Amino acid sequence: MNPSFEVLMKNSYITQDYMHIPKYFYEHLPESHSTTVLHYDGEPWFMKINMGKRRWFKDGWKYFLMNNNIKWGWLINFELVEITQFCVIFQLHVTGRVTLQDPVEIN
C-alpha cells in the first residue's frame, strides 16, 4: 500500500494559492525534488512543492482546484505512487463530486 494523506477541503483551502502537506507525511518526500504531478480524472496537473521547513503544493494548486471544480467539503486523498529522478507523483482520489450514483449536498 502506498503512503497517502487526506485533506477535507475548507473554505481557506479553496481561496488560497497553496495547499499544506501534513508534517507527518514529510518523511515520504525527498528533499531534493520540488516538482510534483497530481494525477486526477485522467489528467496530469503539474505544480511545485515548497521544500523548506514547511511543505506545500504551490504554483498550480489554485488552477487545479478551479479547473476541476473542487468544492468546500470535498475529501481529497493524495496517494504517493512514484518518486522519479525529476518529480514526485501522486494519484488523487476525490469524494464529494455530485453524481447520480453518489449524491452529496454541499451547502
Short description:
Strands 1-6-7-3-4-5-2 form a seven-stranded mixed beta sheet, with helices on one face. Helices cover 12% and strands 40% of the residues. The chain has helices at residues 11-15, 61-68, and strands at residues 4-8, 19-20, 35-40, 43-51, 55-58, 75-83, 88-95.
Description:
The chain has two helices and seven strands, in the order βαββββαββ. The protein has a single domain (4-97), classed as Beta Barrel (At1g16640 B3 domain), CATH 2.40.330.10. It has helices spanning 11-15, 61-68, and strands at 4-8, 19-20, 35-40, 43-51, 55-58, 75-83, 88-95. It is globular and about 30 Å long. Strand 6 and strand 7 (88-95) form a beta hairpin. Mean pLDDT is 87; it is low at 98-107. The relative contact order is 0.24. GO terms for molecular function: DNA binding.
Task: Outline the secondary-structure elements.
Elements: E1 4-8, H1 11-15, E2 19-20, E3 35-40, E4 43-51, E5 55-58, H2 61-68, E6 75-83, E7 88-95
Parallel strand pairs: 3-7
Antiparallel strand pairs: 1-6, 2-5, 3-4, 4-5, 6-7
Features:
2 helices, single chain, mainly beta, 107 residues, 7-stranded mixed sheet, At1g16640 B3 domain, 12% helix
CATH class categorisation: Mainly Beta
The mean pLDDT is: 87
* Series of H and E elements: EHEEEEHEE
Count every helix, treating DSSP H or I runs of 4 or more residues as helices.
Answer: 2
User: What is the CATH third-level topology name?
Assistant: At1g16640 B3 domain
Provide the helix percentage: 10-25%
Strand order, main sheet: write it out.
1-6-7-3-4-5-2
Structural shape: globular
Low-confidence stretches: 98-107
Structural class: mainly beta
Instruction: State Rg.
Output: 14 Å
Measured by DSSP, the beta-strand proportion falls in 35-45%
Largest sheet data: 7 strands, mixed
CATH homologous superfamily grouping: DNA-binding pseudobarrel domain
Number of strands: 7
First-to-last CA distance: 34 Å
CATH architecture: Beta Barrel
Number of domains: 1
